Amino acid sequence: xxxxxxxxxxxxxLLTGAGFAYHLTASLAGERNQxxxxxxxxxxxxxxxxxxxxxxxxxxxxxxxxxxxKNKAGTQVVAWMTDQKVSFDRMDLAVPKKxxxxxxxxxxxxxxxxxLVPGLENDKKFWEVTVKDKDGRFHYIHYDLFTGALLTxxxxxxx
Length: 159
Hints:
Helices cover 35% and strands 40% of the residues. By secondary structure, it is α+β, with helices and mostly antiparallel strands. It is extended.
């Protein structure tokens, strides 16, 4: 009898934990979908982008939705957007993402790029790269979007 009670309690705890995990996952996915839908509406209402290739987020002093896509002329462009403002540039003038990845892997062999997005701070446009190295440290690196020059780099040690 005691074994059944203990097994029932364990089962209730496991089911409650599974339900909580499902709810958390579903709510995060729902928030991401709402974010992307809002950004898509901003794009079509406030830019000349007609084809969206990617939607991402840059979080710095100010957070931006970052949209890469093609405009009416077929030129690849990037837009940094908030609910209040939009900044826009051409990606054909930028250092290609592939070149940034190659530079990172050359400097940090045996590492993993966890995030790579065009960033914007005080009208300065750059590639922001988050790299997890083989020792578990996170490197945040900014390369000028148009020249590829290293602008800033800092490391966070794992806790």
